[in-house]
Structures are given as structure tokens and as C-alpha cells.
Amino acid sequence: MGRVVVEVMPKPEILDPQGKAVVGALPRLGFTQFTGARQGKRFELEVEGDVTPEVLAAAREAAETLLSNPIIEDVVRVADISDVTTEVTA
User: Fold this and answer.
1) Under a CB-based contact definition with an 8 Å cutoff, are residues 72 and 10 in contact?
2) DSSP code of 63?
3) pTM: predicted TM-score of the whole model, two decimal places
4) Taking the domains of the chain in order of start, what are their residue ranges?
5) 84 confidence band (pLDDT: 50, 70, 90)
6) Nuclease: is it a keyword of this entry (predicted)?
7) Phi and psi at residue 63, to the nearest 5°
């Protein structure tokens, strides 16, 4: 079984009230090095078998027609989950 990651972010010119709330809270919690924040969406789509270029193309089409609102959001990534680095080091 394969998985595809789709990430969607608000277009840069669109106000992001959740991002503004996060950037306002960060310094109060001691995280003073961050000067901006934007909040987006992440989807993980499961497929039978391997993630092929055809599967990625279908995922991109689904992202552009269903998973995002193209008026206010951009699809910023469609990738095989095995190609996505999600490691967080402590």
C-alpha cells in the first residue's frame, strides 16, 4: 500500500487569521526567533500498490479540484510519502 501527501497553503495575498494567532502566541511562550506563521492543510491519501506517476497526477487533480479552494489556496506539494522528510530531531 502506498501513500501520497498533499499539502495546501493559503495564497500569500490571503489573510491567515490562524497563522496570525500562532505568530502572536509564539513569543508569549518563549519562541522569540519566529517572525511569521502560515497555517495550511495536509492530506494523506492511501492507494493500493505503489505510488506511480499516474497516481501522483490523479492526486494533484484531486487536490486542485476537491482538497483545495483554488481561489484562496495553492497546492504546494503532492508527493509519495516515502519522499517526504518528516523527521524531527530532539
Assistant:
1) yes
2) I
3) 0.83
4) 2-83
5) confident
6) no
7) -65, -40
